[in-house]
Structures are given as C-alpha cells and as structure tokens.
Amino acid sequence: DTEVTQTPKHLVMGMTNKKSLKCEQHMGHRAMYWYKQKAKKPPELMFVYSYEKLSINESVPSRFSPECPNSSLLNLHLHALQPEDSALYLCASSSGTSGRKQETQYFGPGTRLLVL
Amino acid sequence: AQKITQTQPGMFVQEKEAVTLDCTYDTSDPSYGLFWYKQPSSGEMIFLIYQGSYDQQNATEGRYSLNFQKARKSANLVISASQLGDSAMYFCAMREFSFGNQFYFGTGTSLTVIP
Hints:
The complex is a heterodimer. By secondary structure, chain A is mainly β. Chain A is globular. Chain A starts with a strand and ends with a strand. By secondary structure, chain B is mainly beta. Chain B is built from no helices and twelve strands. In chain B, strands 2, 5, 6, 10, 11 and 12 form a six-stranded mixed β-sheet that branches. In chain B, β5 and β6 form a beta hairpin. Chain B starts with a strand and ends with a strand. At the A-B interface, β5, β9 and β10 of A face β5, β6 and β10 of B.
C-alpha cells in the first residue's frame, strides 16, 4: 500500500480565515513533506519532517505553520493568507532511510487552495 | 546550478508511438536516486520509475524504461506504445542520499498524445 491521503480536496478561504490541511500515511514512513505547486510548475518544497522533527524549512512565511503530531500525520495550519498563496498543496512521504528503492517519495492527491 | 534540467517544455507524440523525455542532472554525491513522476490534470503526482546510481541495469516498469547514462549524467524516460492517458506533465527528480531527505525536481515536460 503506497497511499497518502489528504483532506480537504478543495478549500476556499478568505484572507482573515484560519484553516488546516491534513495529511496521513500508514506506510511506516519517517519523512514527510509539504510542497506548494502552481500550475505548470514543479512542486516547491516548503517543509520536511524527519522522525517527527522539522528538518527543512525553506524560508516559508510564518502564515504557514506545519505540525507533525505523530509519525503518520502531518498538518499545515494556514492563517492570514494572501491571494498569491492560492495553489495546489501536496503532501508526500518517504521511508527516511537511504540508498534504496524504498526511498521513493509518494504523494497524496493534493489540496487545491483558493484564497479570496 | 540546477540539480535537474528538463529541456523540453512540451512534447507531442502519436498514439502507439514511443517517446523519450529528456532529463540531465548534476550532483557530486556518488550515491543518488533518480525518479520520474507523472502528473495528470487531476493534480496527483504518480511515481513511475526509479534508478539508483549504483544500479547496473536500466530500470523498466511496464511501458516505462529509463535510459540511464551515468557518465553523461542523463536519465531519460522512454514511454513505449503511447496511450491517450499518457497525456500529462512529467517530472524528473533526484535525491542525493548522502545529504538528507530533500528531493530536487526539474521544470517538467508536458506530453500530449495525439490520436
């Protein structure tokens, strides 16, 4: 099973709203990722959690706040977003070890976010 | 320098023909992995195929094969017998195993299969 789930599939929010994106995997993976993707562009890395600790933060504005409650769950809390934050937000996971095919990164279906 | 370069923004292929999508990479890590993903208009990134830097043979997965030329630092994806459902964005990616969990993506190639 290589399933990563994300909720919600679609989200429309105003600039003053607070919302959260959720991601879950049950593959025993120890690395989890948040990406932002604009249309026809590659995914841009936002955050990486390794063994439930934040290991990479790619200078993301503080209006995005990640949380990793346990090894299966990853949240992205959103507050006071801007219209330019509208994008597809992808969650991914990988085993977190090194050097093997099992290192493949598997993606969830994404959340399409529109900020009005 | 770009870690992954995909020089074909858009490609067209006739149904049932083969097509090659180009990918070159740059790394000093002797241990790395190369990945290809397909992203249809629905948005989900679908893993297609993997090649490890120490793998002796080119990877194959069904209609997908990876033409790995290590000395030239290229990892081209070959799709045989193209189908209409192959129309999508294709991304090449790399992970340097000595340097942590980050994956680097190319800019992608938009493939259109013509009936």
